[in-house]
Amino acid sequence: MLKKKIKYPIGWQSFEKIRTEGALYVDKTGLIADLIDNSRFVFLSRPRRFGKSLLLSTLEAYFQGQKVLFDGLEISQYEDKWEKYPVLHFDLSRSEANNPDKLEGYLNNQLAKYEKYYGVTTEMKYGSVGERFGWLIEKVSEAVNKGCVILVDEYDKGIQETIDNKDALERNQALLRPFFSQLKSQDKYIKFAMVTGVARFRHYTLFSGANNLEDISFYPQYASICGITSEELIQYFTEGLKALAQEYECLQEKVVESLKQKYDGYRFSRADIHVFNPFSLLRAFKNNSFGDYWLMSGTSKVFIDFLKGAEYDLSKIHNIRASETRLSSLFDDKDPIPLLFQTGYLTIEKYIRNNEEYLLKIPNGEVRGALFQDLAPMYLGISTMDGAQKARMLRTCLEMCDLQGFVEVLDSLIAKVPYPIFDKDSKEKAYHLIVYCLCLAVGVDNRCEEPMADGRPDLITFTDKYIYIIEFKLDKSAESAIKQIDDNGYARPYLGDGREVYRIGASFSSEKRNIQRWVVKTPSGEIHEIIPKQRN
Predict the structure, then answer these.
(1) Which whole number is the average pLDDT over 439-457?
(2) Cβ atoms within 10 A of the Cβ of 205, count?
(3) Is the pLDDT of residue 92 over 60?
(4) Which of these, 257, 258, 297, 299, lies nearest to 279 by C-alpha position?
(5) In this structure, what DSSP letter does residue 126 have?
(6) DSSP of 34-91
(7) Residue 336 pLDDT greater than 90, yes or no
(8) What is the pLDDT of residues 469-486, one digit of tens each?
(9) Three-state secondary structure call for residue 452
(10) pLDDT digits over 22-54, tens only?
(11) Distance, first Cα to last Cα, the chain
(12) DSSP line for 301-369
């Protein structure tokens, strides 16, 4: 008899569909119950593909009193009334938000649908979408003698997709501002309201009229309301872990560790709670394979548009400290950190309580690869597909300790760097950008410019059997790079690790725009020069 396969609800945004079709559901309803008990007007920011839409769908089912859908879930232990409320749900991701007329048309169509459903259709002429929305909230509440529940998903799509079009941006803001202001002006007719999005564009004054929204994005108690914790991984994905262990012929503990390196690491508050990207994790289990699923699902348009005109040196994003205010603010081309955090390219590594600051990092290997493939066309002059292939080749070479092959691939990458990079920027900045791209490319588990007692090595990358400490020098000898590694004790913390430690030095010539010499110091202390074959 064939064993029934687990349904992994990848991309499913309907809580009802997940529950009625028997798909896997990670129970977040305890957190939802707490949220409903303690808040009325809520805002939540999370990166794309993190389950915000499913969260709102779950809230919709709850407020519609669909008790049967929650049987066996945590919230069923607390709820006994299961009252039904009118729900007005708007998903702006379904609109053509780059066109203000079409965005307005979408909102009017949604409002007309709810007017008809609740039997409050009128022939009155509205001054704005906001005025019509406010009228709808009031009349629906009066018709059923209960407060309305307002759910708005991807509120910021109309802002993100017009960020580089001033006229369209201003029109979308003028359209949405009176719409959101109804959340405050119609307060007495609203039972509960929640707005979600990627970015926190409060400086666009979209919510100036709705300043009653409580931003829970950094609240420790809701740090895992979207995403999957390590404990939930073990609890809900037993069969998937077994299948991956069989596929890769390894222990289940190794699978868990690999999943953490690839998809875990997101942290959204001062609480030390980390979560996996749920989209990528479900994909890995369904396909029974580790893949770069977040990247394949699309890239933030705002992020790519920003990169093209950024003044900020992206090679400096390691070991960034930022306050909550900064992470919540509007980005510009001189400070991309809020954008990188809000879109998921950076996350919290550590909360520094004394300064009330956060130390940031790239969340995991998947995001590191995505960042490399976004940067590679601009800074290395190679296509996204070629960049992905070269990154895989670099990782394979390091896993096999094929340092000749590693140097061959890395040398060919650097040789393709376009001249305008050196013309546009200082040679020092261009050099750091190139090194940074290479750091992103060379492995799932690597650390760029990690602070140590006596300095910051350019790159330390880890495999199961080997550790590589790599130092690049601009217009200096490769031997001086090896000397820096030894003098500053970069290898010392790893000598008792059980893995072989290799030191690699490379001399980069700003005049010739390439690495001139590669020198390797083996675990036994021998020094070897590696010369790429194409130079022979």
Answers:
(1) 65
(2) 11
(3) yes
(4) 297
(5) P
(6) HHHHH-SEEEEE--TTSSHHHHHHHHHHHHTT-GGGGTTSGGGGT--------EEEEE
(7) no
(8) 988 888 899 999 999 999
(9) strand
(10) 999 999 999 999 999 999 999 999 998 899 999
(11) 62
(12) HHHHHHHHH--S-GGG-TT-EE-HHHHTS--BTTB-HHHHHHTTSSEEEEEETTTTEEEEE---HHHHH
Q: Positive or negative CA dihedral for 324, 327, 330, 335?
A: positive
Question: ∠ CA 37-39-44 to the nearest 5 degrees?
Answer: 125
Q: How many CA atoms lie within 13 A of 430 on its CB side?
A: 20
For residue 250, which phi and psi values (nearest 5 degrees)?
A: -145, 170
Which contacts of 79-87 are long-range, i.e. CB under 8 A and separated by 24 or more positions?
79/33, 83/146, 85/144, 85/146, 85/147, 85/148, 85/149, 85/191, 85/192, 86/118, 86/140, 86/141, 86/144, 86/146, 86/148, 86/149, 87/60, 87/63, 87/148, 87/149, 87/151
* β-sheet bridge partners, residue 274: none
The answer to whether the beta carbons of residues 505 and 518 sit under 8 Å apart is: yes
Cα-based distances in Å from 231 to 256, 514, 516: 11, 47, 49
What whole-number distance in Å separates Cα of residue 358 and Cα of residue 270? 8
- In this prediction, what percent of the chain has a pLDDT beyond 90? 54
Radius of gyration of the chain, Cα coordinates, nearest whole angstrom: 26
Choice between 55 and 371, residue whose per-residue pLDDT is larger: 55
Read off the tokens for 500. 């072989």
Whole-prediction pTM value?
0.85
431's tokens: 């050099």
Closest residue by Cα to residue 275 from 346, 220, 226: 226
- Residue 333 above 70 pLDDT? no
| φ and ψ at residue 186, rounded to 5 degrees | -105, 30
Q: Is 476 exposed, middle or buried (0-12, 13-18, 19+ CB in 10 A)?
A: middle
- CA–CA distance, 252 with 347 (Å, rounded to integer): 27
Structure tokens, 314: 């992206």
Mean pLDDT of the chain: 86
- Kindly tell me the burial class for residue 514, based on how many C-beta atoms sit within 10 Å of its own C-beta (0-12, 13-18, 19 or more): middle
Q: Which of 287, 337, 343, 289 is nearest to 314 (CA)?
A: 337
Q: List, edge to edge, every strand of the sheet that includes 321-322.
A: 321-322, 357-361, 347-352
**How would you list the strands of the sheet with 466-474, edge to edge?**
446-448, 459-462, 466-474, 500-509, 514-521, 527-530
Q: Can you tell me which residue has the tokens 């930022």?
A: 322
